[in-house]
Write a structure and sequence with these properties.
With 127 residues, the chain is an alpha/beta fold. It has one domain: 3-Layer(aba) Sandwich (Rossmann fold). Helix content is 43%, strand content 19%. The protein contains five helices and five strands. A five-stranded parallel beta sheet has the order 2-1-3-4-5, with helices on both faces. Helix 3 links the parallel strand 3 and strand 4. Helix 2 runs parallel beside helix 3.
Length: 127
């Protein structure tokens, strides 16, 4: 069985490295460094999930998610990665259609399980 493809969008090389190493056993990981690169390559890369930093140079993560939803009929699910954890921000990002939010600093050992849990929860039928 092939691994799901995860597109990681983060401008911090250290975060990308830690996340890539953490995720590579469970996902085929492709990384980009900006929202612009995400938008330019998302269709070509055809990810099963996007792990998207909220704070990026240029367009931020929420803006990138909005643009993805405008441009694609069926955009991949997006999980935000953020160090910002104010409750009103978290609820706003979820209301934009994010599958979930993973807080930085994340635990590299549990990151793959957390992403898979969010994907599985999306696929479970509502009771």
């Amino acid at each position: 069985m092939s691994r799901p493809r995860l597109l990681l969008v983060d401008d911090d090389p250290d975060v990308r490295l830690i996340a890539e190493v953490s995720l590579e056993d469970r996902f085929e990981v492709v990384s980009v460094t900006s929202a612009e690169e995400l938008l330019a390559r998302v269709e070509e890369l055809a990810p099963d999930v996007v792990l998207l930093d909220v704070m990026l140079p240029g367009d931020d993560g929420p803006t990138a998610l909005r643009k993805l939803r405008e441009r694609m009929e069926a955009p991949p699910p997006v999980v935000f990665l953020t160090a910002r954890v104010l409750p009103d921000e978290l609820s706003r990002w979820t209301s934009l259609g994010a599958l979930g939010i993973i807080r930085k600093p994340f635990d590299p050992l549990s990151l793959p399980t957390e992403v898979l849990r969010l994907l599985d929860a999306r696929e479970e039928p509502a009771p």
